[in-house]
Every structure is written in C-alpha cells, then in structure tokens.
Amino acid sequence: MTRFKKLVTRPTLYGLLSILFLWQVLSLCVNSNVIPAPLEAITKFFVLLPTELWRHLITSLYRMLLALVISLMIAVPLGILCGLYTLPDRLLSPITYILYPLPKVAFLPIFMIFFGIGDASKVILMVSIMIFQVFLAVRDGVKEIPYTLFQSMKSLGLSPYDQFKHLVFPAILPKLFSALRVSLGVAIATLFFAENYATTYGIGYLVMNAWSMVDYPKMFAGIIALSLMGFVLFKLIDLIELKCCPWTQ
C-alpha cells in the first residue's frame, strides 16, 4: 500500500506543478485573454462544475466507458482465439492490418448515417479505435507464450480452463493494460472531435462552444475537465493492473 501511495502522489504532484508552472509562464508571456491564468481557469472550473459542467463530464465519461466495455468484450476473446489457433488468425489478422492504420475519424459521417447522430455513432467510433489495439495486444501476448509451457501443463493433466487461468490470462494482462492506455488516449482525442457534431452535451461540445463564444476561461475549464477524465481513467487502469499483475511492479 505504501508503494502504491508513492506511485500515485509523488509523480502526480510533480506533473501537476510542472504543468501549472508552464501554463502560468505561457500566460504571462502571451499576455492575452486567449490563455487565461491557471487560477482563473481553475476557479471557472469549480464555478461551472455544480451547474452545467458535470452533465458534460458525465456524458463524455459514459460514452468512453461504454466504448471501453464493448471493445474489451469483443477484442479480448478474438485476440485469445487468434493467438491460440492458426485459422482464425489467418482470417482476422489481414483485415485488422488493413483497417487498423486508417484514421477512424474519417468514418464518423458513415457511422452517423447508419447509427444516428446520438451516442451510438460516437461510441462506435471509439470502439473502432480501441478494438484493434486491444485485439493485437492480446493476440501477440498469447503467441509469445512458449509452446513448451502448454505441453508442461497438459502433461500435468490440467484442463483447458486451468491452462487459461494460470497461463494464458496472466500472460496477456500486462499487454492488455498497455494497449488500454494507448487506445484510451487516442479515443479521448477522437471523442473530443466527435462531440462537436450533432450533440448538446459532452466536453468536446463545451470546449468548442466556449471557443466560439470567446469565453476562454470556460474553454480552459472544459479542457481541465477533459484532462481530469483522462487522468482518472489512467489511474484506474494503473490500480487494476497493480491488483491483477503484482509481478510487474
């Protein structure tokens, strides 16, 4: 527990103070209301939080978590299947290699046509980003398990369930958490873009609407909210990894 507290507090405090210092310096150098001082933006954040900001924050968080759950439910089983068996890998991997490098934001108009302008199109857009990253990480994690370990477990008479529980699952977990961190960062950026279209709630909408209204403190308050959402999700992943993969610490 002591090591975990150090992991959370010291790096977090250092990062926060560094960003605030650079932000303050930039605000003084620019000397324009386009970049308000950190104190002004933070004050605006706490003023807006109980009135309207919390709705935008919860809406964005709901979309992000729903996309994350859907991506895990689809990508993890497919990744394990393709890692263990050759035929599914030959069928799915070529499709993944073609679709994965494409910028998924280009599909937003198509998703909006087929799935509407509500939450569904935005969630599916984020799923299309996270699912490939998670799939490849899980598949590669399974493939990197030495075949001799499978033979050893079979010789001990362990069932396929026991092999998955004690060998496959622990092997893919570290790669899965790393893939989640990478894909979440890209997904949050994409969500910001998607929330600028056909919606009235979401951090992306709040930020761009404040920008169009030349309300820069409100705009930066939205950026702070977006940063906090990403920070909480990343720390949540760190916490789960600490519990599930103590051997990596």
Helix-strand layout with pairing:
Blueprint: H1 2-30, H2 38-84, H3 86-99, H4 108-115, H5 119-143, H6 147-155, H7 160-194, H8 203-212, H9 216-244
Q: Please, could you describe this protein's structure?
A:
This protein has 249 residues and is mainly α. It has two domains: 1-31; 36-248, MetI-like (MetI-like fold, Orthogonal Bundle), CATH 1.10.3720.10. Helix content is 83%, strand content 0%. It is globular. The mean pLDDT is 86. Keywords: Cell membrane, Membrane, Transmembrane, Transmembrane helix, Transport. The chain crosses the membrane at residues 65-85, 182-207, 219-237. It is found in: Cell membrane. Belongs to the binding-protein-dependent transport system permease family. One of its GO terms (biological process) is transmembrane transport.
Residue share in helix: over 70%
- If you average the pLDDT, what whole number results? 86
Pick out the low-confidence regions: none
> Helix/strand-derived class?
mainly alpha
The backbone outline, from C-alpha atoms, is globular
Q: Give the CATH superfamily of the largest domain.
A: MetI-like
The CATH class name of the largest domain reads Mainly Alpha
Number of helices: 9
How many structural units, i.e. domains?
Answer: 2
* Rg computed from alpha carbons, rounded to a whole number of angstroms: 22 Å
Number of strands: 0
Subcellular location: Cell membrane
Protein name: ABC transporter permease
InterPro entries: MetI-like (IPR000515), MetI-like_sf (IPR035906)
Membrane topology: Multi-pass membrane protein
